[in-house]
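Methods: holo model generation. Sequences were used as deposited, without trimming of termini or removal of tags, and paired with ligand SMILES retrieved from the corresponding compound records. Each pair was processed once, and we did not select among multiple samples. The sequence and zinc ion SMILES for this entry were:
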Amino acid sequence: MLVFGDRVAAVGRGDPPPWPVPLAATWDFRPHAVLPGFHDAHNHLLAFGLKQREADLRGTRSLAELFDRIRRHDRGQPVVRANGYNQDDLAERRHPTRAELDRVVPDRPLVVAHTSGHMVVVNSRALERAGIGPATPDPEGGRIVRDAAGVPTGLLQENAQQLVEAALPRPTRAEMAAAIAEASRTYAGWGLVATQEAGVGWYGPDELAAWQEARATGGLVTRAVLMPDVRTLDWAAEDRPLLWQGLASGFGDLSLALGPVKIFADGSLIGRTAALEEPFEGAGPDARGMLVWPETELARMVARLHREGFQIAVHAIGDRAIRVVLDAYEAAQAAVPRPDPRHRVEHAGVLPDGLLERMRRLGVIPVGQQHFIGELGDSMRAAVGDRRIRWTYRQKSILRQGLVLAGSSDCFVVDGRPLLGIHDAVNQTTAAGRPYAPEEALTVEEALRAYTWGSAYVVRREREMGTLEPGKLADFVVLDRNPLAVDPAAIRNLRVLATFVGGRPVFRAD
Ligand SMILES: [Zn+2]
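and the model returned the structure below.
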């Protein structure tokens, strides 16, 4: 492979082709394997970077262990933060309570985030700081969970999380830029060359500035497409564009660009807040999750974003949420036909055949997360039961419908290593070692294509990246062994030896 500037100039066997300028550098990667670099179509790089500074609760097996990890992390910070627990993995099979957290950190706010990112449990100091009491009403699209006496338990779901976050100090621009740089270097070590940031604006008004600072100072070594959260747009006036002077999806360049607008339609499957048509497994008839926006409001936002030329990416996990989102997309496209708007459904967690066929008809792309199978598969089965599990996080069915399949992790929610997602798409095995949905298994080649070309496609970059051929970006990864030649059960053990972005090495293993 011959690279000129940041592009692939030629690929082939035998002698190097005649070239009018001397080669600046030659690399011999034999006997290893060179592939297009991995591209994560739904990721939270900034949150991942910031969460590296919090207590890590992933893999916690009991409440005692959870409290202990928080205590060991507590070094007198003004706000103590922890993240990554899953109540289904705890021996007690429930969330911690405010009273319990008060015993761990009595004197300062403590925020303990669920692995889904869709809920937190906080202590009394945090509730006080946010002014949340028994009389506080639930915010729109959120729930302050209360005990039988109406007293908040500390569990805040969906939009209720923002009540506490708004009352606590936000990271500064410099802290965010540093977190972006650290995360980007970590990602390069995982073989990633690009990520799509599924929600920008959660940490304050200068997130875009932090991304630009990280890029300008050389900290951002991977490419990024940023998806502004719909709540950060300027909805005040009907006759003024939603973003400054009509800025829309696609603005920017190949290292940093504005992507789709992100909207949340519902919650999380394992957190039991996703909007389902039928109740969660083993739960009462009303336990069908929640829609974050009333249907009419969602349709109104989608219609206007579509009219103003945005690509749209709506988080919809439950089948009820997906139906509502498809209704909104269909109406928007009928009112203002746009060629190939490539709107997306993020996660598309519970996707029965009818909805999948409707997506194909509308040209809407589901963007699912392969490694949810390995890390959350057992929890997801507990949430929806055996009958519906075969509709969840589908892979092969999406390809069979003729839709494009993208690869993504939703990291920080689960481990963001692309090889884990590729492994799970092929092997379909949960953490407990149970088969998940074997009929949805991909070939290794299909899984690699999803995590490279498929992800590029869902942000209109398939002509620039995703394969290694003349004219495309020289974004590639070197693996110790060829994933097409190893036992599929060993894919997750492959090692990333080097990662190149635009022809330059951004990661090299020892
Ligand atoms: Zn996400």
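The mean pLDDT is 95.
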